[in-house]
Design a protein that fits this description.
Elements (H helix, E strand, L loop, with lengths): L1 H48 E2 L6 H8 L16 E2 L1 H7 L3 E7 L4 E7 L21 E3 L11 E5 L18 H6 L2 E6 L2 E14 L12 H14 L14 E7 L7 E14 L12
Parallel strand pairs: 4-5, 6-9
Antiparallel strand pairs: 1-2, 3-4, 3-7, 7-8, 8-10, 9-10
Length: about 280
């Protein structure tokens, strides 16, 4: 009788385990499908709209490397990528930029809409998607000319979109992937990640518009002090910042993760090859 009872309990436990695994499978399956869709659509967009120019510029870059006092980063090959903005804007006039974050394997167009809700549920090509798009707030100038620019994106559980930003909580990840790149018509930005903080959605982190020098310096200092990874004396003076923002967890709270990158160089790309920073 005891043996039969043990077998009964064992069968019950196996049944529960099977049901649990089945439930987990059907819970994760849609997420797996979404992840595959995101990655596939990103790869298709990169293939269609991005041209790498490394081979074309190989000889020129080798010559520039011979210069003894070459400005750091001026031979960064990621600055020579060409984005087909004409093709992108034939699909959606509100595509204003392209973002490449090597540390997150994120390589996507950036939208700039008439409000801050549409691109939460639509991708940059205006297709309805639960993962939305990377987008700039509607009050941002289209040429990103202000001192502080913000980009928003969903925190996808699988690490796609801005879900990979959480990696930058670790200083080692920032050391391995210190740069991200923003491309606009005629410009390529090289940005160094230097501050990562958790904050509230209504905090001063999200300030935009005009700044006095005193306000700007105080704001930058606060970003340094609140950062999880910033090292004292590590970075240059920052005159222009790109902030990447995403929710923490499932987005039900007002807590946000903000990754700040200082714009170190802006390269002119209309001529395709102009060496040197045009930042003053």
């Amino acid at each position: 009788e005891n043996k039969m009872e043990r077998e009964k309990i064992s069968r019950k436990r196996r049944g529960i385990a099977v049901l649990t695994l089945a439930a987990l499978f059907f819970w994760y399956l849609p997420q797996i499908q979404v992840s595959r869709q995101i990655r596939k659509e990103q790869e298709e967009a990169v293939e269609r709209y991005v041209r790498e120019e490394k081979e074309e510029n190989k000889e020129e870059n080798e010559k520039s490397e011979e210069v003894q006092e070459q400005e750091p980063g001026s031979t960064d090959q990621n600055l020579f990528r060409t984005i087909d903005f004409a093709g992108l804007r034939s699909k959606n006039r509100e595509i204003c930029a392209w973002l490449w974050i090597p540390g997150c394997a994120l390589d996507v167009p950036v939208a700039h809409g008439q409000d801050n809700a549409y691109y939460l549920t639509h991708d940059a090509f205006c297709r309805e998607r639960i993962y939305g798009s990377i987008f700039a707030p509607c009050e941002t100038p289209e040429d990103f000319s202000e001192r502080h620019t913000i980009l928003y994106g969903h925190n996808m559980r699988d690490g796609t979109m801005f879900g990979g930003l959480k990696k930058y909580r670790e200083a080692s990840w920032k050391q391995e992937f210190p740069y991200l790149y923003l491309y606009l018509p005629g410009e390529a930005w090289q940005c160094r990640i230097w501050s990562v903080e958790e904050t509230d959605a209504k905090s001063d982190v999200y300030r935009l518009g005009a700044w006095s020098d005193a306000d700007w310096n105080a704001w930058v200092q606060e970003r340094k002090e609140n950062s999880m990874i910033f090292g004292s004396g590590e970075e240059k003076e920052v005159q222009k910042i790109l902030t990447l923002s995403t929710c923490i967890g499932d987005g039900s709270s007002s807590q946000r993760l903000a990754v700040h990158a200082g714009v170190e160089m802006i390269f002119a790309t209309k001529s395709g090859r102009e060496e040197g920073s045009v930042l003053e």
